[in-house]
């Protein structure tokens, strides 16, 4: 069995049948040439690379990990050569502007590429993934000279990039950061400080590494308003891109982690390294957060990736593993026992994974299309798409990674004791998945962003952008006999979503802690409703095609939608109670009473 | 900070204040000398051993793991010497009969020892833990000669034991097992076959290892009714306990696992090894299952152990780590940021751990006392205790390990990105915890045992044993103003528990798959209600003593009870829906539609 099969048909279902991708592209600047033929070709070529080149390195990368020796990081066997093939295939340039050597395809297609490379080998995929963030920063805020010097090399893929935010004493609270940038006479800055948790911060896969670094100017105000952004290359390049002297920065160590062993998580020490200001002084966080939505969607994909990989592995295993007889009588009487997929609880675990993974894909792809419009929509007012994206990004990031981790754990559970053994790869999938709820803003931080900054700060307006869409959908289908089973409960939940929001908003007027107390449960509730909307739409499509040649494919979708409504969505009954339970049950306990 | 502080006060609360332990011991044969002084002394000496000897080896044991070289297993540094200290301290003999060199203390006290050694270092604690199973088997079913030869050495601790059940093709479904036992003229048997997943199957900590092996006699019927039990020592002893020749069995390899690296999980190959029948032919499973309840409680403890360890670590961290200000204004204005324990969502994560861990302890200790009575009660009819134990064992095993894993994950989450780094030990705690839902019967198997074998097969009688106790409790307190907040919702849930049981029971009469479809959700529901009962009782005690010198201790209990009722118990609202949702949403999907 191959380690991973790219689910091309499922991806096509979401792109073409759910999201009308060809028409979507017509709404983007410079994207009118994009058609299904092109997209399918990208998918097929991408699938070959994922299945044949990087998926086979997923487990060996975990076993070997990265090694560190006196500042030099060596990636696992095969990683470097796979990266070379990736560059030779032109993949790094896919979604970047033609001006700097890119192919100009929409970010949403890059999102699909991130899914399939990330599912094949998340640790490997993080190397090009981090470059993407550096490129985005330079594209949006770099000077023309910076773009010429750095961006073209990054787009080509011969250099990679990083994002250097975190320090030992601050991750969430970047206002505390201490790294300093002292201006020099030549217009450059001397960067002093130490950064931790720098993914892909040092490695042997590319000839140069371009670090995007947050630091403080000497006269900067305290807190988040005194942070500036710098580009700090490992080797200082000449303007024509030739590598010059080694910059004064070094990798002090790499972390020993629970998972993603193939990706180097570095301590980077800047000892007077030359850096160059990006964007205006003291506006570093602002510049960095301009592409926060796509960065967070990029991490949301990790939930989908581990959900999909675990599902494929556990589905194959439960079809093969023989153990016990079905309670309703033998299903494979010619064999010593039935395959365990006959048992209802095994099916519950498989269907949970399928519902979360395919539902997560619908939500993430939908959000990626919103990001396309926000960034390169050609029709003028993109405020609705921007609002929807702002609302759905924290939901996608936290909900899809939380349910992705749940899925990865269920996949392991399907293997019984064997799941705990490394050789099957499902325990690695759990370990690798675990970081997704931590980095790029923890679940708690996403929840505060959603409920505090997005929903309540907009007086509920951002939420209404989405509940209106659901309302319209339900209204159109609620008296339709075949879709009633979805439209009726969805409509109730959609109304309740608004009521819960109002409830928390009122409570928060008296006590701001009410927001933090409700936030995570509110986010999870929002995720369950969002997926319910997409599963209703998937069921609608499936019902229309349930007599087609692909009957099994569509009936699978329809029955998974039913499973989701009957077995997963009831979790909102618990959340509706806890959201309204108030802050007192958390805040009344004194610190010494814990 | 020490790695682990034994929560002596919490343990005392459950033993003396909740369970009236001194009086309990008076109901046991040969236990009238047990008083609080003795128990407290055991706790204090045990705590010293756990904190000073084995807790410091927990992380190094994970890092080093066991090594395998040509059949020889070497345990991590310090494990062997710690075990020697354990033997010198007389710990292995604590709960065994004085006849074979034991100290005759109740099993329930051994249960407390298992908790604290297991929390300090689960991998290490499994070595003596497995011996316990072998001793129980011999005590209950061995001949007098077998007891003399093996039991006294095991009780002394100079030999250790294992349980050899699983084979590569069968774990849950032992009816498929193939290992053979051929009778020899001298009354012994030649054992041929291969066993996997044998915890502590080979190691360097004791001079001999006594394997209890399931195998088939030549003329045995197929399936579970043709399995016999054998004692198969690594070295064949003379009757006076001198070690003789090496038996024909060897360790073929050790597994590479997600966690519990310090414990050797072995493949054992039996190549005509000499074995000796225990109990009657073909009654091996029956013999082995006679102590299944205590074995499963022993695994339930693992959920409690990892819950407690994670709670201690995350509580300490969230009190120290400074990040962001409280939404209601700075709480530590003299510091650059507030300790993160001020944030409501961090408190939600801490209180969830506290509620599950302390609730799990109440449930497990309660069950352990039932096991005491069942095994050595001196008052005649122990059928009520036996029934309650049969009912609560699968609940304790599955619910406490599932919520223990949830707790361990929440502890990691409290650390943010740092939780993913090995040096903090919280990710090890997650990896170690993960196996607890798999071995000794997965959560799915426990759920079938509870709903199918225990509840429905007894026509609900076993369930009524417990719901009557809850009913009586609620009736006594429902009009008591101070306990109303617990007694009212508990009473409703208790009634609903019966209704849900009836609902599934009726459905199962038409379709046996309904049992499997409802089982896991039913088990989790049962666990939430059971913990609600214990938290109500804890709150009752706390209310009585909330003005005492230990005010903070008791108010902590009371507020955790409130948290449990308001934030955790609402999960039953989801489960009540999914339990009744029926089997169709799982069984209607065809295998090719997944």
Calculate the mean pLDDT score of chain A and round it: 96
Bin the strand percentage of chain A: 5-15%
Largest interface: A-B, 96 and 96 residues
Shape of chain A: globular
The count of β-strands of chain A is 11
Q: How many whole angstroms does the radius of gyration of chain A measure?
A: 24 Å
Q: What is the subunit organization of this protein?
A: homodimer
Largest sheet of chain A: 7 strands, mixed
Descriptive report:
By secondary structure, chain A is α+β, with helices and mostly antiparallel strands. Chain A has a domain at 442-586. The first copy, chain A, has 20 helices and 11 strands. In chain A, strands 3, 4, 5, 6, 7, 10 and 11 form a 7-stranded mixed sheet that branches. A two-stranded antiparallel ribbon of chain A has the order 1-2. In chain A, helix 10 runs antiparallel to helix 13 and helix 17 (513-544) packs antiparallel against helix 18 (551-568). The first copy, chain A, starts with 7 loop residues before the first helix and ends in a 7-residue tail after the last helix. The model of chain A has no long low-confidence stretch (mean pLDDT 96).
